[in-house]
Amino acid sequence: MKELKVLTSTGMLGYGFPATWFKEGLKANPDVITVDSGSTDSGPHKLGMGALTCSVESYYKDTSMLLGAGHACKIPVFISSAGGAGADKHLEIFNEIVKKICREKKMHLKIAVIHGEISKGKVKEKLKQKKQSPVAP
Questions:
Q1: What are the sequence ranges of the domains in the chain?
Q2: How far is it, in rounded angstroms, from Cα 127 to Cα 120?
Q3: Is the pTM of this model over 0.90?
Q4: In angstroms, what CA-CA distances link 46 with 7, 54, 62, 86?
């Protein structure tokens, strides 16, 4: 493949985007639709409490359009940092949104969820190890 065409609907999923512009982008026959669902700084609140950056309804609206287009064009849709910070709780909520869209639109899609959250226990263990290690002169 000499060229990979990527269509990105918006810089932040859940904030909305003009459907006409997105449909115009589809005319270029992209190989993939991709969008970020994170922010520049999700902060400890979103990570610790599983708080979403946008409403479930906003994510549903935007994601529904993306998945529908990907399904119709037979191309993959990649969504990063699902729900804002991409923590396991965000992924769980977002996965339910995707499943609901698929049920309602009667789409049968292959869905992959990539977890990247580090458990609190692992972080505590590493911090404890650092306190016990000798400090270099």
A1: 6-132
A2: 11
A3: no
A4: 28, 11, 20, 9
